[in-house]
C-alpha cells in the first residue's frame, strides 16, 4: 500500500540547529514563503538546548548543521530506529565522519551550505516523506514483533481452554478468536487477559487414591 505524499508544509515549524545563521538565511526566508515558521534552538557550550519530548511529528522539522562540533540532538540515541520528527542535514564539509553523524540522527535529506532557495522545497519534500515512509514501516514491524511475542500467549491459552473445556485445539483457537473479535482486541491481547483470569480462578484438586481411602489408612 502506497502512502499519500505530503506536498503542502503550511503550518509547520522548522527547528534549525546551527551557529552559522548567515549560511541559512535563504533557508529561513524560503521556509517562510512555504508557510513554515523557523526557530533557532540555543546552543550552549557545544550542546543543543532542545526538548525532544515536546516535538510533534505532524508539525516539526529538524534541520541539523553537520559542522557543529558539539553534541547533536538525538546523537546519544543514535541506535534508535527512527527519529521523532523529520531530520534534514545541513552539509558544509563533506567529511565521512560528519555525514555519518547526520545519518545517526536520522537525516533523510540534505542541503548544501550556504543554502540556496531553489533547493529547499526538494529537500523538504524528500526529508518529510521519507520520514513518513520509514515511520510507517517501523510501526508495521513493531506490530509484527508484538504479535510474534504474543504467539506464546496464544498457544498457552489454547492449551488452557482445551484442559478447561475438553475441546480440541481447533475449537479452542476458534473460541478465543471469536471472543477477541467480539471485544475488538487483538487475539494476542485477549489471550494474555484470558490467561490472567484462568490463572486466578481457583480449581478443585481431585483427591489422591481410591474414593474413601484416607491418608495413612492401611
Please provide a written account of the structure.
It contains 5 helices and 7 strands, in the order βαβββββαβααα. With about 220 residues, it is α/β, with parallel strands linked by helices. β6 (about 85-90), α2 (about 95-105) and β7 form a beta-alpha-beta unit. The longest helix is centred in the middle third of the chain and has 49 residues, at about 115-165. The N and C termini lie far apart (about 75 Å). The chain has 2 domains: about 15-140, Rossmann fold, CATH 3.40.50.2300; about 145-200, Orthogonal Bundle (Arc Repressor Mutant, subunit A), CATH 1.10.10. About 45% of the residues lie in helices and about 15% in strands. The chain has a 5-stranded parallel sheet, with helices on both faces. It has helices at about 25-35, 95-105, 115-165, 170-185, 185-200, and strands at about 15, 35-40, 45, 45-50, 60-65, 85-90, 105-110. Mean pLDDT is about 85; it is low at about 205-218. α3 crosses α4, α3 (about 115-165) runs parallel beside α5 (about 185-200) and α4 crosses α5.
Amino acid at each position: 500500500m502506497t502512502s499519500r505524499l505530503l506536498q503542502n508544509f503550511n503550518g509547520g515549524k522548522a527547528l534549525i540547529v546551527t551557529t552559522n545563521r548567515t549560511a541559512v538565511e535563504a533557508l529561513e526566508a524560503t521556509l517562510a514563503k512555504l508557510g513554515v515558521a523557523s526557530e533557532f534552538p540555543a546552543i550552549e557550550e557545544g550542546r543543543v538546548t532542545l526538548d525532544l519530548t515536546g516535538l510533534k511529528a505532524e508539525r516539526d522539522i529538524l534541520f541539523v548543521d553537520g559542522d557543529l562540533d558539539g553534541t547533536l540532538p538525538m546523537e546519544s540515541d543514535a541506535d534508535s530506529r527512527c527519529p521523532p520528527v523529520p531530520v534534514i542535514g545541513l552539509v558544509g564539509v563533506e567529511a565521512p565522519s560528519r555525514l555519518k553523524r547526520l545519518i545517526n540522527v536520522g537525516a533523510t535529506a540534505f542541503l548544501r551550505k550556504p543554502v540556496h532557495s531553489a533547493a529547499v522545497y526538494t529537500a523538504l519534500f524528500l526529508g518529510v516523506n521519507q520520514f513518513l515512509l520509514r515511520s510507517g514501516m517501523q510501526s508495521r514491524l513493531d506490530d509484527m514483533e508484538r504479535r510474534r511475542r504474543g504467539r506464546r500467549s496464544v498457544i498457552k491459552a489454547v492449551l488452557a481452554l482445551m484442559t478447561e473445556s475438553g475441546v480440541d485445539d481447533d475449537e479452542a483457537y476458534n473460541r478465543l478468536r471469536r471472543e477477541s473479535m467480539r471485544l475488538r482486541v487483538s487475539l494476542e491481547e485477549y489471550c494474555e487477559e484470558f490467561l490472567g483470569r484462568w490463572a486466578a480462578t481457583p480449581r478443585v484438586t481431585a483427591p489422591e487414591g481410591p474414593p474413601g481411602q484416607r491418608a495413612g489408612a492401611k
